[in-house]
Predict the structure of 1,2-phenylacetyl-CoA epoxidase subunit A.
Amino acid sequence: ETSAEQRRFDEIIAADSRIEPRDWMPDAYRKTLIRQISQHAHSEIIGMQPEGNWITRAPSLKRKAILMAKVQDEAGHGLYLYSAAQTLGITRDEMTDQLITGRARYSSIFNYPTPTWADMGAIGWLVDGAAICNQVPLCRASYGPYGRAMVRVCKEESFHQRQGFEILLTLMQGTDAQRRMAQDAVNRWYWPSLMMFGPPDGDSPNSAQSMVWNIKRFSNDELRQRFIGMLVPQAEVLGVTLPDPELRFDEEAQQYVGGEIDWTEFFEVLAGRGPMNAERVRARREAHEDGAWVREAAAEYARKTTLRQAQ
Ligand code: 3HC
């Protein structure tokens, strides 16, 4: 016997409408949204570190200003997403604590190092490019605050992707050393960017339910395919080679088919054993501890202001 609330919820989902914070929702719907939105927010915040590493070493003032703007955007994306997650009942402190104690997931992609400037191009072109493929459908997620946060995020991601492409194009039109640096970065970021879309559909425990609830609109493999289809012509314009010798267009399936992704690497990174996992969590914990005095001062100031207003 389904309750009136469950029937109401089912009607809203069936009509492809929005669930809002005050609406009744099944606990499992709330739980999977807190899971996905908090992890998405953590990804944005941790994602500031690989690029932040090059703000003081950008090759020109223009590149420095663009990179700073991009990293600041990521912080803003994290803020929207933490706020969206808070509408579901989890607090900012709980989410931050989960992240700095190493208990929270965030996107595997940010656990790789950024040894050269060309990484800034590869991250913009590949990582933000993948993020766009993944985030555009999320603008239509059934949970209102999440879908609406994505609209603003996607607009800014497009700038992130274009500036990355432009960095690589500039390098590819430069000296042989610059061309080698760009190709090396593409070689290191290509496969991990495909892993951003999640495990193969057959190994994706959350997909089926997320698709029933109109949270996930396309499967992990479908979006991964779409991303590769987007990359091939752009790689040709750049003059870089995608590091998959088996990549070819399957006329029958009318899509690109490539070599096997190394899922062992994926699950190793998810288990915390990627090249930079410990460093990323340590840096985030340190930033949180270093910022404690600011939070205390702001709280004390707010307390005194309230006291004064009450007198
Ligand atoms: N990194 C880390 N964990 C991952 C992952 C990845 N690349 N891909 C999947 N996982 C985790 C899932 O979280 C899940 O674990 P959990 O149940 O403990 O949360 C498990 O692996 C199985 O994966 P599923 O496919 O079953 O999980 P989902 O249905 O949640 O799909 C997802 C995974 C496609 C990443 C989905 O969660 C999603 O769309 N998330 C929102 C988008 C997002 O987080 N993107 C990260 C990119 S970072 C970014 O966009 C910043 C930009 O500015 C560059």
